[in-house]
Structures are given as C-alpha cells and as structure tokens.
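HUMAN: Spend a minute on the protein record below and explain its fold to me.
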Amino acid sequence: MAGDVILATEGLTKDFKGFTAVNDVNLEVRRGTIHALIGPNGAGKTTCFNLLTKFLAPTRGRITYKHEDITGLAPADIARRGMVRSFQISAVFPHLTVIENVRIALQRKRGGSFDFWRTERVLRQLDSEALALLEAVGLAGFAAVPAVELPYGRKRALEIATTLALDPELMLLDEPMAGMAREDVDRIAGLIRRLAANRTVLMVEHNLSVVASLSDRITVLARGRVLAEGDYAEVSKDARVIEAYIGVGHG
C-alpha cells in the first residue's frame, strides 16, 4: 500500500468572524512519505494542522484518514486509529524520569488507566519496551534522569519517544525544530528520517534547510490557500513561492 493516500482533505476551510484562515485546501499525504506544510507567517499552517488533528472544527470541507471520513471525530478517536500529533498530545511530565514518561505513554496505548499498582512483571515488560523506544531516539543513557533536567533538544526527543509509544501510523510533527540549537536540529532531523522508514510523517516546519533535506513532498500555504506543491526543487523555484516568502509587491 506504499504510495496510497493515507490522509486527504477536500475543500478544507476555517472562518474566524469574517477572516478566512484556511481557504478551500485540498491536501493529499501519501503513505510512507515525509510531507512538509510550509509557508510565510500568517499562511494558515497552524490552523490547518489544528483542523487535521481535530483541535479545531472546520467551517466547511472534509478530512479522510485511511479513506474513512474523520471530520467529526475527536482528537482521542483519531489517535486510537493511529494518527498522532507530537508535542501536543504527548505532554512530558517534568518531575518523572525519562523512562517513567515513556512507560506512562505505553500504558495509555494499552488502554489502561495509569496503574502504579501493576505487578512487577508487567512493569518490567513495559520497561523493556520503554528502553527500546529510548534507544530509538538516542535517550538510552538518560533513562533515570528527571525530564525537567533534560536539555531542550533531548526533551523534544523524549516527546517523540512518548508519541512513538502510541504506535502511530501517521505522525504529525508541529514545528519539531522550533527553538533548537544547530546540533539539536541535526540530531532531531536524523531521528525523523529514521522514524519515517516505516511510517508516514506530516510536519509543519519553518527551517527550510530541514524541509529541503527531509521532505519527499511539500505543500506551500499562503493566505490560507495552497500556493504550490511538489518536491523542494520544484517549489523553491516557483515564482509565487519566492514572492510569498520575500513579499515582493505585497509586503
């Protein structure tokens, strides 16, 4: 099913009291790709992301995930179906250790309450799964560290680990590189590339060099509309995209 459309929108629109933030957006995200949503400030990227992940209800339009209409579903319902937004759903508990944070996410995936009375055997089983996830995001050496003590980039890696604990098919990353130092950007970019080997990633990202190196496909938004779509080579040469970013003639 690689290349099949996993997430799509038709005529997705969001009005806020006379202002249209997202205007008739048709989007197709193909299974097994890294798809970036980019655009200048005020382009409607965050609103679009909030519509896709059900934190906002659209004024008009339709969203389908794995060919099922999810327009009316709640965020928890789509998360259970395998579409999970990182850095939003996966809050980190600052005073728990790194491994405890991942273990709680694993318990959530199993549908249980956060049962701290579970048997030692069950908790040990969760620990081995949690350690495997920490290994995947480069945090194996930080398992016993309280999350609050992690440097910023490592905290982001922990948020990705807690999202992975929910076993998403489609992972939505909301500005994963925001506020990061250069070495953290490189580390998280490498992590996203590895994660995308067996899942689909849709991300909003401002760092265009990251977008260029990671993305298979890019959708450019401007003033709430899709301005251009294609790979980086195509969209970076598009005169409308250059104008939208530089603001020639429009400010």
About this structure: The first helix runs from residue 45 to 52. The first strand starts at residue 5 and ends at 16. Residues 39 and 221 are 5 Å apart (CA to CA).
